[in-house]
Design goal:
Largest sheet: 7 strands, mixed
CATH topology: Spore Coat Polysaccharide Biosynthesis Protein SpsA, Chain A
Number of helices: 8
Order of helices and strands: EHEHEHEHEHEHHEH
Number of domains: 1
Structural class: alpha/beta
CATH architecture: Alpha-Beta Complex
Length: 227
């Protein structure tokens, strides 16, 4: 089972080398697709040394378009049978890959979400961010009749055929609700596994903001009725 790891990147000069080192250390990624979304902090200089080494391929967006756009570019470039989205900010630990991949390898799931709220160890999270995540997940379950615990998780793993004919339009952080909505409407099998989580705060470079929660609400409602 060939695994493609997609790494969307924007201004992560402090963490990009370390996250790629950790991904490689798993020895599970057959290719690492790094999509730099218009970084201006020196990240691109580091990526020039990473490109072509150890299965890594770097794709550059000339200007910042948003995480969703970077993920979509990565999906289009990936060649693996299974795709895994890996944020570049060290909040998610690649040592979780075996647990994330197991349900797909065993034929139990088409899509796996790494849930931050199933009891695994994690650093104390910002309260309002956690509350927003809980509300968005509840809305997802109400609209799509499911029992997810963490719709907004950055760790999403899926078979290539899941997105083969799925129209994706997200440009920013609306990727998570759009992808989830369309997976649930298409009745793909979703499995959740607990993951550890090391959240950073805004002073450390966290990019998602409260306004993104309102965009997510609209996205969930919109795709409940249109595709």
């Amino acid at each position: 089972m060939r695994l493609s790891v997609i790494v969307p990147v924007y201004n992560e000069v402090k963490s990009i080398e370390e996250i790629i080192r950790r991904v490689r250390a798993t020895q599970l990624a057959d290719e690492i697709i790094i999509v730099d979304d218009g970084s201006t902090d020196g990240t691109r200089d580091l990526l020039a040394n990473i490109d072509g080494q150890g299965g890594a391929r770097v794709i550059l967006h000339e200007k910042n378009q948003g995480k969703g756009a970077a993920v979509r570019t990565g999906i289009g470039a990936a060649t693996g049978e299974v795709l895994l989205i890996q944020d570049a900010d060290l909040e998610y630990d690649p040592r979780e890959y075996p647990c994330l991949l197991q349900p797909i390898e065993e034929g139990l799931a088409d899509v796996v979400y790494g849930s931050r709220f199933l009891g695994a160890p994690h650093r104390a999270i910002l309260f309002w961010n956690m509350l927003a995540n809980k509300i968005l997940t509840l809305l997802t379950n109400l609209l799509y009749n499911n029992i997810l615990t963490d719709m907004e998780t950055g760790y999403k793993v899926f078979r290539r055929e899941v997105v083969a004919e799925m129209p994706l339009h997200a440009r920013r952080f609306d990727f998570e609700p759009e992808f989830t909505a369309k997976v649930l409407k298409r009745k793909w099998r979703i499995y959740e596994v607990p993951i550890s989580f090391h959240p950073r705060d805004y002073s450390e470079g966290k990019k998602i903001r409260m306004k993104d929660a309102f965009i997510a609400v609209w996205t969930l409602i919109k795709y409940r009725f249109v595709d």
